[in-house]
Design brief:
It is built from seven helices and no strands. The chain is mainly α and 153 residues long.
Length: 153
């Protein structure tokens, strides 16, 4: 059997010619940055790298804080690199994407700022925990049903 005996295997998921503007990107529409947007992305990525190296070498923070900041950095990079809308300009970072990225990064500091409080109340049920778990038992469900549909009486 020679090469000519076998038909080439084509990628069944991709048409031979895609219509213009209909290119599928497996990981979403990624920005092609330049100027200050590229500098901001590079600064965030370098900051993340330095943070990871510092944590790996010296382990200065608890694991919960380390993970929280790690996720904050990843969210910042994600919001800077991928636009939130399909119609977004891929050559620059929109102000709302930058704002959400910075806010997500700032939320990564929550576990560091409130670490002592979180450790002190670990395992304790808070008021919202009581409402949530008590509302799931049969009596709570019945009372909730009766109060929600009291207007039917």
């Amino acid at each position: 059997m020679g090469k000519e005996d076998h038909a080439p295997i084509l990628d069944a998921g991709r048409p031979e010619e895609e219509p213009p503007g209909e290119h599928f990107e497996e990981h979403g529409r990624q920005r092609r940055l330049s100027g200050w947007g590229l500098r901001a992305m590079m600064a965030a990525a370098l900051g993340f790298s330095v943070y990871q190296l510092d944590v790996a070498a010296f382990s200065p923070l608890s694991s919960q804080v380390t993970r929280s900041l790690h996720v904050g950095f990843l969210l910042l990079l994600t919001y800077l690199l991928y636009p939130a809308t399909k119609k977004a300009n891929l050559a620059r970072i929109a102000w709302h994407d930058a704002a959400v990225g910075v806010a997500a990064f700032a939320l990564g500091f929550y576990h560091w700022i409130f670490e002592a409080d979180l450790v002190a109340r670990a395992g304790d049920r808070c008021r919202i925990g009581h409402v949530h778990t008590d509302g799931l038992d049969a009596r709570g469900a019945e009372r909730g049903f009766r109060s929600a549909f009291s207007w039917l009486r």
